[in-house]
Design brief:
145 residues, mainly alpha, TerB-like, 8 helices, 74% helix, 0% strand
């Protein structure tokens, strides 16, 4: 399963991901964000599980299993630019601000802003076709969660 996804992500032209792969790719991007500051904390892990459960209607155990798969995929995944491009192609424009809000909720879960996380968020929001204003609005919404 991971080999096929990684081959698609590293191919010169990334095809639109089938739905399960797009979901797992997003989960892996959440893991990458949580790891960006070098501290993959239990609160960030819990937030990823909560986001995955809410987005996909998963029970806690199923959300945790998806995160575990995403942790493996994130370690093997190509650069963030290609990874995000694949997610963008598998996600409608209207849904992308919700994705960025979910990502901000993970970045803010440990109650600290880190430069590495901020930099990754700027990159991902831009690659998803969102403006700085849209990302800031998503961050504000996430901070109230």
């Amino acid at each position: 399963m991971f080999d096929a996804l990684i081959r698609r992500l590293t191919a010169p032209k990334t095809d639109r991901l089938p739905e399960p792969d797009a979901d797992l790719a997003l989960a892996a991007l959440l893991v990458r964000l949580a790891r960006a500051d070098g501290d993959y904390s239990p609160v960030e892990i819990a937030r990823i599980d909560k986001v995955l459960g809410a987005r996909h209607g998963l029970a806690p155990a199923a959300a945790a299993e998806m995160r575990l798969q995403a942790e493996v995929l994130e370690q093997e995944a190509p650069d963030t630019v290609r990874f995000t491009r694949a997610i963008k192609e598998g996600t409608a424009l209207e849904e992308r601000s919700g994705l960025v809000q979910a990502m901000w909720s993970v970045a803010l879960a440990d109650d600290s802003r880190d430069a590495a996380e901020d930099q990754l968020m700027r990159l991902v929001a831009n690659l998803l076709g969102l403006t700085d204003q849209q990302s800031a609005l998503a961050r504000q919404k996430a901070s109230r969660m």
